[in-house]
Predict the 3D structure of the following.
Amino acid sequence: MHERRQTVMLSRVADSLYWMSRYLERAEHTARLIDVDLQLRLEQAPEVGAGHWSRLIEALEAPLPPSGTVDAASITQILTLDRSNGSSILSCVAAARENLRQVREQCSSEMWEQLNRLYLQVNSTTAGEAWLLNSHVFFRAVQEGAHLFQGVTDSTMLHGEGWRYIQLGRFVERTDLLARLVRTHFASRARTSDAAIESEEYLEWVGLLKSCSAFEAYCKTYTAELRPVRIAEFVLLNPEFPHSVRFSVDRIDAALQSIGELTERRAEQPIRLAGRLQATLSFSQIDEIMGSGASGYVDGVRWQCAQVHNAIQQVYFDYAIEQALVS
Amino acid sequence: MNPPEPPLSLFRPPFRNYQFGGAYDEMFAAPGTPRSHYKALFQNLLELPPEDLRKTQQAADLSFLHQGITFTVYGNDEGTERVFPNDLLPRIIPADEWRKIENGLTQRIAALNLFLEDIYHNGRILADGIVPRELVYSCRHFRREMRGLNVPHGIYVSICGTDLVRLPDGSFAVLEDNLRVPSGVSYMLANRKVLKKVFPTLFRDYGVCPVDHYPQSLLATLRALAPTTTRHDPKVVLLTPGVFNSAYFEHTFLAQQMGIELVEGRDLLVHDNVVYMRTTAGLRRVDVIYRRVDDDYLDPLCFRQDSNLGVPGLFNAYRAGNVILANAIGTGIADDKAVYAYVPKIIRYYLGEDPILNNVETYLLGDRSQRQHVLEHLDQLVVKAVGESGGYGMLIGPHSTVEEREEFRARIEAEPRNYIAQPTLSLSRAPCFLEGEVQARHIDLRPYILYGENVTLVPGGLTRVALRRGSLVVNSSQGGGSKDTWVLRA
């Protein structure tokens, strides 16, 4: 019994790995959303896409430009290279790097080099390059850099406790981002009938799927016939697609289960809350969700996800000392 | 300062610009005649195409950069992270010379530990008038809080890096003791790793003593300090000031090599005089802290209140004997540069032996007649602030301007106790590979001494190089580099 596990993980280290991962996921998501959006606008009549910038801002919960003028250049600047916006791509990549730098001895040198490279690339990009000249190249590079980092992480890092916090951070962030995106999209479209979508509206729904990297996977599952309910079901409830809410929540649950095992704290709050969230998604029916309004359902998911996050903070990172001394 | 250089036309290219005279040369007994232990390297350099060496140097530089083997320069806004330059040519020390260094440093650390125990307890050496009382009590690094506190096995200094220089007569002398948080050992290990790749055959044929076990020796030293009574497996951690410290790379490196946690002050907390670290599995007790944080910043309740690098309550836990700090608090008194002048007397007093390694002649500026002499000869002497290290707060007379000398004159007159002066030493020179050829540069030597169950030295150390031609300053913060040190088997 005395033989406790040899390796311990400092709360600060776990916290840094968790946030590093969240920031990187956010950067990747933002890059994909802008990229998809810019591609989409090319094919649309100007008056149709009028409200889309504010929807993008809403989906990313980003600040409005100080000038008040909402146009492509100012929005892209704010979301991409603006250091004063903590959720801009540059800020996120810089924050991810700073978090990893403080725990460098915990990650593989390949991971550090990859993230460092991504940061140097984003940091040396100018607004002109990001927006006017070759925006697609830039946003793809961010997404690819993040993918590469994930691949390097999975193949070079010990899949121990630290790796679980990286998983946890990625999927907590992803759940929240996806839920936000779905909410914004459905709120702007009152129409929820199950008829096939046509013409102008078609592009918007393709945009939603592409923003989740889901277009091809959706077509494989349901064919290219787009129906709002199926799209909602796919993005929310598909257990096999990595950018669905259900999939992300499954990963959160799994990561917390093994962290519970590794830290010998199996009955803690985060595990119970994650289990409940996981159950919510695995037992939900799409027609019920749509019947009572997707927004309300998605808000519930976000609220539960925030609770999981808070519980992780309280139990593993920033617990009260009195409580820890008792146990 | 140096006599004219002899013509070297008899040399083949790599040595064409090699500079002789004015200092002890590590490689050559006389121009063109290498010392016996340098013969093989000399021969090798004559045969090796310089182009090969240059490529190897580039590869080594790049590998240092990618691994992030860097240090931080303070007081410099741009580019604060720098690679520590590494020179490819080894510095070679024969077995008999090393034995003397080893004996001398063992003697010195033993005496300094006895001195620390004495001044923090009965103060016999002060009562006997060997070391002046006011010198000790006026030292900024004297910690009243340590009075009467017993440290485990009476060991105050467990990790020490002493700077040695070789004088023109070939003898080694101690330039300064670093008894607080000496750094640089990671470069010793990194240099060795590179050199084994650059000169594999030469390395094997020379019979070089290994240094790679330093992290294990350090861990064993730290474990030996833990109280034997309570728990069978003491928890050892390394306390770093954090990512902005100049030696952060070394902290992460050593923690990784020893397999111990790298903690910051905010990871630790004290409850009922017991130190815990905050882990994801709850609080874990800490037994030994290898701290790379200066005394001043360890505990805001006891030392500097404006610092949050440390751990509130740490000192009380230390006093209660529930945690061991290595090095102990208050060791800075024994490497104060004014106390340094008394070390030969300290050795004789406690051990009844003559010092094996000599000191460098030192003027104490608190003394009126010595001060007078120094102020008259500022342009020839080196003046150092007593509590500084890393080459900061220094005046090198022969290389100084009138303004700098006037500034130091004013400083000395304001606070004479804070300064000492030494003759400008002609440090020995060793061959270095610079600008595609072999050139001579001034060097020193910092061996690392560990004191746990007994005193051990890893055979080797950090040889620091003043890379600028003619420069005598070897500190990394002042344009210095380093090279591998080969101690030969007997």
